[in-house]
Amino acid sequence: MRLKKTFVVFSGYNDRANIAFYRAAVKLDVSFHIVALTRQDKVFLTDYVGNVFFVRETSEPTLSLFERVIDRFREVSDVSEKFILPNSEYLNWFLLQNRIQLQDMGWSISLPPNDVYSLISNKESATNWVGKFDGIEIPSNFTFNEIQFPCVAKPKLNVSSGYTQYPVFLNLESDLADFEGEDSSFFFQEFIKGKSYYFCAYVSSCGRTISYWQENIAQQPGGKSILLARSCSNPGVQVTSIIDGLRELDFTGPIMMEVILSQGEFYFIEFNPRLWGPLDLARSACPSLFELLFEDLGFDVSFHSPEKVETHSCWYAWGFGALGHDYVVYPADDKDFSVEQVFSLICENDLYKQSDTSTLTLRF
Fold it and tell me: Which of 38, 72, 219, 274 is spaced 20 to 30 A from 126 at the CA atom?
C-alpha cells in the first residue's frame, strides 16, 4: 500500500507561485494543505480556502510553529509524508538550517544538500561556479574604489542576520553611501542591458530534467518582480553543460536561471533554486514540469502533457504589480512593445483573472 503524501504550503510567501502550484495540484489530484498567514491571508479570497489546514499569526518560521502544525496533522489526518513546498528563499534557508530537527519531527525536506543549495543560491558563489562553463559570460566585477556606473550591488549571501538581501541598482556615486567598501557584504558588477530570459527547470533525482524558456517583457524597477512574460524557445544558451554540472553536484529540485542577451553575448545574472514568481506560465508552456516534480517525490501521477511550448503563444502577467509606478520594458524577440501595449497585455493575461482567484484581480 502506498503511503499517503501531501504538500504543505506556507502561504504568505511568494503567493503567485503558490497559486500556480495549487492549480497544477488540483488538476493532477495531488494532495496539499495550506498553512495560512493570519486570517487576512489572500488565500481566504480564493477557491483554495478549503485547503487551509492551520492559521499562523506571524510570518517568522520557528521550530515551535512546525511542531504545532505536525501535532495538528497527528490529531486529524493519517498522512504519512508531509513535504514542505520550497516557495521562498527565506523559508528554504530556515529549512536547511534546521533540517535534522524538522525531519525528526516528521517533516520531509525535498531541498538539495545544504552546501549545494548555498553554492547555487548565493549570488557570488553561483557566479563563480557558472564562470567555468563555456557559452555564457559573467558581468565584470568592480572593486569598491573602481566602480563604474551604472552597476549592481549584489549580496554575497541571500540571507544574512535573519533578513533576505536583494540586489541594489546604483546609478550615481552618492548611491554608494549605504555600502561599506571592500568589507561590505555586497559585491559589485557591471549593469548589463539587453533582452531578459528565464530558463526554468525541474531536475529530478531519477536523472530526468524538464525545462522551458520564458522571455521577459516587463519587470518592476530595480530588478524586482516580472510583470509580463511569454514562452519562447532557447535563445541560444548552452544549458546542457550547466544541467550536467548541477547533477554532478547532486542538485535536485526546481531551479530558475536568469540570463541577459547583450550585444550578441549571454550573461549570467542569477539562479533561484526554488519556485519562481511567474510559475503560472509553466501550466500552459510546460505542464509536464509539474508532473515530474510530483512524480519525483513519489506522488501518483501519470505523464500526459507535451514537455514544452517553444512559441510565443503562452503568456504570464501580474496586473496589480504594474499599478502605481513605472516599469522596465525589455526589447522582445520579434517586436518592441510600447508601454501602452504592455499594460494592455498585462491586464488581459493577469494570472488572477481566472475563476479560482478572480476576487484578487488587480487587488493583489
Answer: 219
